[in-house]
């Protein structure tokens, strides 16, 4: 599947159209597919209803045929809301160069103290987009030197559909959430899970 003597970027992993469990195994991880039931942020979310209304108004008016259009019109508002509420730092198109087989740009890297969240935007293909997210999380795990966050969180999204993932650094496992969250219908649940993941006091757990 992957040639040990060849270099790969994250986007080239996407283009391989490989099986997710085989990619995980190649990098020394085990894939676990399950409903994650991540804990939601419990407090009131100001202006979330306005964000939902804005997205509902935008959807009929924009031709969302490209990844760029989805990133600007659907994903960016969600990410902006997230960092405003959590005061997390956002890096866009952030380059990681861990090894010849773990290198490329992360679409969005969100960091709050020792909490990290990576978001991968795709036009349509969530299946192979998840493969790309897997190697991005593995690269991020090697980039993050501290062990204070034993579980890293990621998401792959087409703008209208989001799928979450967790990387267990201690047990070398990748968890793929079976639940797909849809925007704008599941916006409240999505935001609460993302916010809880990047809050300083949050401790991600796998149930």
Structural class: alpha/beta
Shape, per Cα inertia axes: globular
Biggest sheet, spatial arrangement of strands:
1-7-6-5-4-3-2
Number of DSSP strands? 7
Rg result: 16 Å
* Tally of separate helices: 6
Q: What is the total domain count? A: 1
Biggest sheet architecture: 7 strands, mixed
As a percent range, the share of helical residues equals 25-40%
* Uncertain segments: none
Under CATH at level 1, the class stands as Alpha Beta
Overall pLDDT level: 94
CATH architecture, by name, is Alpha-Beta Complex
Order of SSEs, N→C?
Answer: HHEHHEEEHEEEH
- Give the distance, in angstroms, between the N- and C-terminal Cα atoms: 32 Å
Q: Give the percentage of residues in beta strands.
A: 25-35%
CATH topology: tt1808, chain A
């Amino acid at each position: 599947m992957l040639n040990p003597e060849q270099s790969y970027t994250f986007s080239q992993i996407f283009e391989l159209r490989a099986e997710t469990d085989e990619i995980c195994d190649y990098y020394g991880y085990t894939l676990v597919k399950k409903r994650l039931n991540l804990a939601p942020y419990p407090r009131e979310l100001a202006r979330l209803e306005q964000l939902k209304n804005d997205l509902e108004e935008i959807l009929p008016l924009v031709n969302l045929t490209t990844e760029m259009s989805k990133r600007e019109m659907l994903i960016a508002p969600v990410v902006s809301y997230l960092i405003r509420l959590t005061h997390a730092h956002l890096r866009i198109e952030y380059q990681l160069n861990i090894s010849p087989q773990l290198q490329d740009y992360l679409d969005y890297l969100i960091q709050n103290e020792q909490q990290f969240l990576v978001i991968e935007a795709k036009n349509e293909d969530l299946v192979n987009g998840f493969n790309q997210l897997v190697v991005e999380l593995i690269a991020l795990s090697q980039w993050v030197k501290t062990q204070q966050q034993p579980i890293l969180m990621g998401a792959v999204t087409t703008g209208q559909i989001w799928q979450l993932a967790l990387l267990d650094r201690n047990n070398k496992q990748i968890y793929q959430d079976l639940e797909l969250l849809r925007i704008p219908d599941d916006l409240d649940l999505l935001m609460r899970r993302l916010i809880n993941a990047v809050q300083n006091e949050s401790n991600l757990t796998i149930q």
